[in-house]
Amino acid sequence: MRQLGLSYAQMQRKLLEDTGIHLSKASISYWLRGIPDPSGSLNRFRPDPSPELSYVIGVALSDGNINVHDYHREILLSVTDRDFASEFSRCLGRVLGRGEPYKVRWSEKRGRWIVQGSSILLHKFLNCNWFNLRKWIEHCGKCESAFLRAFYAAKGQYAARASVSMIRIEKCCCIFKICFGTLASNRHSCT
Asked: Are residues 15 and 73 in the same domain?
């Protein structure tokens, strides 16, 4: 962006438009001058559309929790299905650029599998009106599929816990189609 002759304020606006992340002019200046990474030890997050990000969004909009503890911004899933927890762990690790998935641990007290990760940037991204996440969910067929797998795996957990009939889950499916329109098949493709 510097080669294009953009000022710090213009770069700031462009970054906000493209990523939804607000950076101070000082941070932009540090990066341009090669001063050590101002984000420090933050878990990195780039909101690039991917099936893994869509899966994390599906979990966050269903059974997941987005919490704040002191300075930690936490994304947490607590479920009875280990496979569901493992897939969330894999996707969360990928979205946050980790070499390995997050730990899936068993809680005797709760009788559940728990996965938790921490990222200020992902927390800010997910902590918005769900309608704003459509761009990432509807990116391509793979992203839509990943979102639905996560969303319905969570609702299946709910149905098993609360003895809710499958008709209710089908209603959720209809609501999804009404809210998001007909599922697309040929928009973009994820690599």
From this structure: no
Lay out the sheet containing 65-69: strands in order across. Answer: 65-69, 72-79, 112-118, 105-107
pLDDT tens, residue by residue, 129-180: 777 888 888 888 888 888 888 888 776 554 444 444 444 445 555 556 655 5
For residue 70 the two structure tokens come to: 């002191």
Q: Across the strands, what pairs with 74?
A: 67, 118
* Domain of residue 58, residue span: 51-180
The per-residue DSSP string of 35-78 comes to -S-TTTTPPP------HHHHHHHHHHTTT-EEEEETTEEEEEEE
End-to-end Cα separation, the chain, in angstroms: 25
CATH no. for residue 175?
3.10.28.10
Q: What is the pTM (predicted TM-score) of this model?
A: 0.66
Beta strands in the chain (DSSP E): 65-69, 72-79, 105-107, 112-118
Residues 36 and 55 in one domain: no
